[in-house]
Specification:
The structure holds two protein chains of two kinds. By secondary structure, chain A is an alpha+beta fold. In chain A, strand 25 and strand 26 form a beta hairpin. Chain A is globular. Chain B is mostly helical. In chain B, helix 1 packs antiparallel against helix 5 and helix 2 packs antiparallel against helix 6. Classes of the chains: A alpha+beta, B mainly alpha. The interface between A and B is medium-sized, with 27 and 36 residues.
Chain lengths: 582, 251
């Protein structure tokens, strides 16, 4: 039974599996190695994901959802027309699409997966990802940190290594850095840091700005300020595409040219843009953003208790790390040459596949590695302190420190603060080691966990032991024990923000199944409609009118998503076509 | 090399040579087109404007000229290969087949006709029992047709620039006709334009770059294509989309 490795990305997703002991990528139904993480309800009411949805985005922005990963673990609902979707449901559609594509590719049923998430993902975000897998019909064997997955892919190729490595991940829209300890049999993530809103798309934008500046300098008019609305949209699309091409070219060439013949007509004059940008000019433009990534690198190394000189290897992942300046800055920082023998776009999915294979023990023994992740955040609870004789609430009391190796458990004993206090509330918060106060936006639980049944007693006499357990999937369990009675309350944080109950998950599963059936039906019907239109070409005028009406009735039924009616009208159309052909 | 490998080699050369032939035919046609377009510009504008447009036109001329860098057909390598096939004990049926295909293609080249691509390769694959996929048919066509398609884009951009000028409608129509004829020459690559104008948006064949208000295209239904910004193309024999059309639809 294959366990699928899935890199569920913000902009693109990818999947891999193990073939003959080696990880291999799986292409989707369009032959693509990565699938855009774009979700859409299209014109026929079908739910589509991937390139097709992305291609239609500009015309259907209100029906399209991008970057849903940023909303995972929140209560946010996405409305498309009358339909409402949770982030988990949308992610479930991506996972269902990938699952289906993998099943078609491998010719076997897929029921299990290892899914990767950014290292900074909170407990709620991880749980939401796990639920998305569940809705999609996948048993999520493990939620794995993305840099850990990359380190695993690297570790499999370098089983002899025993070293500290950094995984520098600069993707389309996010940046992550992790410090990883790699032994011959073990991978341990020592620290992680990053920026959720920095990536290759920012560099494209800067290049577009640069070109607009050159244009304004030469023609004394802003590039996107003249012409009709449609002309400006087209111009923008062309410039953006060319900026992407130029950025890619500058990774291998010392200079690249924005070649945009007949881009615009200004003042009756046809304008062709032909500006050359050198790699060094490009580097000047992007340098400030890249320097900012090094600050996160410093933080991660500090958190890991290491110095730059302690780092033995550098792994670069994410498409934007192809930019030579990225490699140069990172290499200068560590006085080491970065590893180039790893595909930056595929390493995460490949690592997830290896992790899956380790679970089912389908890898040769010498390739097996033990993976140890760390807790990405400091976790604690809110307490009341007496300051200058006054009671002040909202203090952050740390139980688990950031970057503690997983699984980790921590316990602390707290006292009652009032006479005859019979309950206490436990708030669970994320934070940082330096934080003194809790932040409401970082509270993990939607409502506090209530520990009741505390015997009436004087203030400070009753003691409650609170334990946090953080498992390898990054999921938290809270346990509270009233020491005088032994009463224990255990909480798995299933009432968290953005979480779905078991019933909701079950309903979402059925809904997803239904949506897929409807979408499949609509796609089958497209073939029938195409056939009908073909027959129409050679039909008598009266027959053509009849065919048009029948097609219209069928399309209407598809839009209504009434399966029975669709089948009935399909049959009527096919009968009509048979009569005409006869 | 074994007979099978030699036949596979022959097929790969055949595909590449036929696509080179296609490039040469296409390039010749594109060059022939430049003359009437230059004339249209000369007659349509006066003095300063004429100079300006003729100068802009040189960009096209230069880019078409770049296409004309295709190696000549190398007859000799085929004779060598046939010789090797004989030495390897290839059957008379195979040798006759190869010689016939070769002669047929030489005739096609001499007349500048459309050379079939997929069928002869299929016949060879069946004869030598190899997988056609090994020739990377789609990717090879994509590689060879990339530049010719880019030239069509440039003609389109040029025509689009002219649209906003005082150029007369019949002259513009003539220019459009010339571009249409150039597109038809892609048949040499077995590549055809995707018909998308006025069709409902479909992400399988189209990439939307935006939507226009209804008032700007009142005759086009909602979510249908009202403007093709970059044409899309497909390989007819395999139905593979080479490039999606970039379009604008009606809101």
């Amino acid at each position: 039974m294959t366990i699928l490795g899935i890199d569920l990305g913000t902009t693109n997703s990818a999947m891999a599996y193990i073939k003959n002991g080696q990880p291999e990528m799986i292409v989707n139904s369009r032959g693509e190695r990565t699938t855009p993480s774009v979700f859409q309800k299209n014109l026929s009411g079908e739910l589509v994901v991937g390139s097709v949805a992305k291609n239609q985005y500009s015309s259907l922005p209100e029906q399209t959802v991008l970057e849903i990963k940023r909303k995972m673990g929140t209560d946010d609902k996405v409305m498309i027309g009358d339909s409402s979707f949770t982030p988990q449901q949308i992610s479930a559609h991506f996972l269902k699409y990938l699952k289906q594509a993998a099943e078609d590719f491998l010719g076997e049923k897929i029921t299990e997966a290892v899914i990767t998430v950014p290292a900074y993902f909170s407990d709620a975000q991880r749980k939401a990802t796990k639920i998305a897998g569940d809705i999609a019909g996948l048993k999520v064997e493990r939620i794995l940190n993305e840099p850990t997955a990359a380190a695993i892919a690297y570790g499999l190729d370098h089983p002899e290594s025993e070293k500290n490595i950094i995984v520098y991940d600069l993707g389309g829209g996010t940046f992550d850095i992790s410090v990883v300890r790699l032994d011959s049999q073990r991978i341990e993530v020592k620290a992680s840091a990053g920026n959720n809103h920095l990536g290759g798309m920012d560099f494209d934008r800067l290049l577009v700005d640069w070109l607009a500046e050159q244009f304004a300098e030469q023609y004394e008019v802003a590039l996107f300020s003249f012409g009709e609305e449609s002309e400006i949209t087209q111009r923008h699309a062309r410039v953006k595409l060319e900026a992407e091409n130029v950025k890619k070219a500058l990774s291998s060439e010392q200079e690249a040219t924005f070649n945009l013949p007949f881009l615009a007509v200004y003042d009756g004059q046809p304008l062709s843009l032909d500006y050359t940008i050198t790699r060094s000019e490009f580097e000047d433009i992007v340098r400030p953003l890249l320097m900012a990534t090094l600050e996160h690198v410093d933080k991660a190394i500090r958190d890991a208790g290491l110095r730059p000189m302690d780092i033995d290897d550098i792994i670069l992942i994410g498409g934007a790390t192809r930019i030579p300046l990225v490699q140069q800055l990172v290499e200068e920082k560590f006085e080491r040459v970065a590893k180039k023998d790893i595909n930056p776009d595929e390493a995460v999915a490949l690592g997830a596949a290896i992790q899956g294979a380790m679970k089912e023990q389908s890898l040769p023994e010498e390739s097996s590695l033990m993976v140890i992740d760390v807790c990405p955040y400091t976790l604690g609870t809110d307490i009341l302190r007496i300051v200058d004789g006054k009671r002040e609430s909202g203090y952050f009391d740390i139980l688990i420190h950031r970057n503690a190796p997983l699984p980790v458990s921590a316990k602390k004993i707290y006292n009652t603060v009032n006479d005859n206090q019979t309950t206490i509330d436990i708030g669970v918060y994320q934070g940082d080691d330096e934080d003194t106060h809790v932040r409401d936006d970082l509270r993990i639980t939607a409502t506090p966990i209530i520990v009741d049944g505390i015997p009436e007693n004087k203030a400070g006499k009753e003691k409650v032991e609170i334990a946090f357990h953080y498992d390898v999937n990054g999921l938290i369990q809270i346990e509270a024990t009233v020491l005088s009675t032994g009463r224990t309350i255990s909480h798995v944080l299933d009432a968290q923000r953005g979480m779905m109950s078991a019933r909701q998950v079950k309903e979402a599963k059925l809904e997803l199944f239904d949506d897929w059936e409807k979408s499949k039906l609509a796609s089958d019907m497209k073939a029938v409609i195409r056939r009908a239109k073909k027959v129409r070409r050679n039909a008598e005028p009266q027959q053509a009118v009849q065919i048009d009406a029948a097609i219209q009735r069928l399309e209407h039924a598809i839009q209504e998503a009434d399966i029975e009616l669709v089948k009935e009208r399909e049959e009527a159309l096919l009968d009509m076509l048979m009569d005409i052909i006869d | 090399m074994a007979v099978k490998d030699l036949l596979q080699q022959y097929s790969a050369w055949m595909l590449e040579d036929r696509l080179r032939h296609a490039t040469m035919v296409y390039c010749g046609y594109a060059k022939d087109m430049l003359e009437p377009i230059e004339q249209l510009l000369t007659y349509s504008f006066r003095e300063q404007k004429r100079d300006m447009w003729l100068q802009a036109f040189q960009t096209l001329r230069k880019n078409v000229a770049k296409l004309d860098r295709v190696a000549d057909y190398d007859d000799e390598k085929y004779f060598q290969l046939i010789k090797q096939l004989r030495q390897q004990g290839a059957s008379l049926r195979i040798l006759n087949h190869i010689q016939r295909e070769h002669q047929h293609f030489v005739n096609i080249m001499a007349k500048g006709l459309l050379a079939p691509l997929h069928e002869p390769l299929e016949r060879l694959a069946a004869l030598a029992n190899f997988d056609l996929e090994t020739l990377h048919y789609r990717d090879t066509i994509r590689r060879y047709s990339y530049k010719p398609i880019e030239i069509i884009d440039q003609f389109d951009y040029f025509a689009e620039s002219l649209r906003g000028t005082t150029i007369k409608a019949p002259v513009f129509d003539q220019l459009t006709l010339l571009i249409t004829q150039l597109i038809a020459q892609l048949a040499h690559f077995k590549v055809y334009e995707l018909p998308v104008l006025h069709k409902e948006l479909d992400g399988e064949y189209m990439i939307s770059i935006g939507a226009l208000p209804r008032s700007l295209a009142p005759d086009v239904p909602q979510h249908h294509v009202c403007k093709v910004f970059e044409r899309g193309f497909y390989i007819k024999e395999t139905n593979d989309v080479l490039r999606e059309a970039k379009v604008m639809t009606v809101m």
